[in-house]
């Protein structure tokens, strides 16, 4: 539940929710003649820094893209190493997360993971669900298109059961059924790693989000670049279609 509604506020733009596409781990490692997984391990340190920064600055919501539904196309060794890293990090940091009043939520299609991982996620979400500080969302096996298809299926089921009238479906119906529906909209989306694309991250949810792209590779992401991205956000004029 969100209680801490104070946000970093400088001008008219309010900043409740930041999402990050954490890209560039592999290239960071390759530049150092190390295996890609070395970059992913360093990437975890950058995740912890980003969480620290969010706590210090009383950010309401941080949503991190950790594994896309398309990342299954990678070599199996890398996929297994990424899953192992996720399990180890969550197991070792859950106490820290809970002690810091962080409410954790995992979004994505969890059906493809084994029951041990699902139990760990459910345990962590359950443990932290009444925490009132930072809302931390981790997207794993997440795809924006998957998210939209999931909503379509829910809507069809509601219609079939006679619980929803076709003529009453509107944008709000979708917004209330899609991932992160209980949270404020994404104000700022940061992508590291120098690519200018969304890679199937939050599609519906970012219709009016401000984007910040940086060449910094994810393991090098720190409070300095985080602050630069936020400062850039506060210089933007958000119109939402108005004047
Ligand atoms: C992002 O880094 C992490 C995941 C997608 C899991 P990459 O692994 O995509 O790193 P690059 O883009 O190959 O450098
Ligand atoms: C996006 O990065 C996914 C995550 C950061 C989890 P990718 O490296 O998978 O994106 P593409 O393949 O370059 O678009
Ligand atoms: Mg990449």
From TrEMBL:
Pfam families hit by this protein: Prenyltransf (PF01255)
Protein species of origin: Candidatus Purcelliella pentastirinorum
GO molecular function: ditrans,polycis-undecaprenyl-diphosphate synthase [(2E,6E)-farnesyl-diphosphate specific] activity; magnesium ion binding
InterPro entries: UPP_synth-like, UPP_synth-like_CS, UPP_synth-like_sf
Keyword Transferase applies: yes
Protein name: Ditrans,polycis-undecaprenyl-diphosphate synthase ((2E,6E)-farnesyl-diphosphate specific)
Primary gene name: uppS
Note on cofactor: Binds 2 magnesium ions per subunit.
Residues given in the record as substrate binding sites: 24-28, 36, 40, 68-70, 72, 74, 191, 197-199
Keywords from the UniProt entry: Cell shape, Cell wall biogenesis/degradation, Magnesium, Metal-binding, Peptidoglycan synthesis, Transferase
